[in-house]
């Protein structure tokens, strides 16, 4: 029950992020697909703790600033992101494209730890905390390249290589060949393999013995002509971070 309750709380937070409006109890229960009575118990608890407030009688509930304050306090104390954030910012400013910092999750997917948005109106706009398929992601390819062969083979053996479109690599042989080519040329590429018209280049970085990767992503028409230049800047950023260790 405690795990289910924790999941519901997270779903409430994500629902507000998606809806961006005050939600009456009935609307929130409908969006969460839970009984009104169960939703009311959660709302009363979160309101009592100061995370939600009633915007007006029968007008609905909305998160208070306490949620943001707690999130900012947690983020400022992150031992890894605090270390890499200045380099990510410099990389974003140098390329003016979206920068993503990621690692492999326990189940073998790519998890985005931090995202710095491009200043362009038309941009790649992922969200921190997203999970992505390792075989159709530049970060995933970079992270796979750091694994010892037995660990990499075990991960690939248990992975379903979903075809997102005609560009997706869906065989182990094709993926491994792409990784080998990427090592030789100096960057790992995703050219519309997961999201049409979105491209990204990535490079791995090892910090305190843990494997991570950083990518620069955006519309293919902006990324592909600059891939060698962006790859050079990206590799320099990763080298600098590793030398700080």
How are the SSEs ordered, and which strands pair?
Blueprint: H1 2-19, H2 25-32, H3 36-48, E1 52-56, E2 60-63, H4 65-76, H5 81-95, E3 98-104, E4 110-116, E5 131-132, H6 138-146, H7 149-157, H8 172-185, E6 188-191, E7 198-207, E8 210-219, H9 220-223, H10 227-244
Antiparallel strand pairs: 1-2, 3-4, 3-8, 4-5, 6-7, 7-8
Helix pairs in contact: 2-3, 5-10, 6-8
Which descriptors would you attach to this protein?
two-stranded antiparallel ribbon, 10 helices, six-stranded antiparallel sheet, transcription, 245 residues, alpha+beta, IclR family transcriptional regulator, WH_DNA-bd_sf, transcription regulation, Tscrpt_reg_IclR_C
């Amino acid at each position: 029950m405690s795990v289910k309750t924790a999941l519901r709380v997270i779903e409430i937070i994500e629902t507000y992020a998606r809806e961006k409006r005050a939600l009456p109890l009935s609307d929130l229960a409908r969006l969460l697909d839970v009984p009104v009575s169960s939703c009311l118990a959660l709302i009363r608890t979160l309101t009592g703790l100061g995370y939600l407030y009633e915007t007006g009688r029968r007008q609905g509930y909305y998160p208070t600033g306490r949620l943001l304050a707690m999130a900012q306090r947690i983020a400022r104390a992150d031992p890894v992101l605090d270390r890499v954030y200045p380099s990510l910012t410099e990389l974003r400013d140098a390329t003016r494209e979206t920068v993503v910092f990621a690692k492999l999750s326990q189940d073998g997917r790519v998890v985005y730890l931090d995202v710095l948005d491009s200043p362009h109106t038309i941009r790649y706009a992922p969200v921190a905390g997203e999970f992505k398929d390792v075989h159709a992601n530049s970060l995933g390819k970079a992270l796979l390249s750091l694994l010892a062969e037995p660990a990499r083979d075990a991960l690939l053996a248990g992975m379903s290589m979903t075809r997102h479109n005609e560009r997706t690599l869906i065989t182990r042989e094709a993926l491994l060949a792409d990784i080998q080519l990427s090592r030789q040329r100096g960057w790992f590429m995703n050219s519309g393999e997961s999201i049409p018209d979105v491209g990204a280049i990535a490079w791995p970085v090892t910090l305190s013995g843990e494997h991570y990767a950083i990518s620069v992503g955006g519309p293919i028409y902006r990324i592909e002509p600059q891939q060698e230049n962006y790859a050079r800047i990206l590799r320099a950023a990763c080298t600098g971070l590793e030398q700080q260790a």
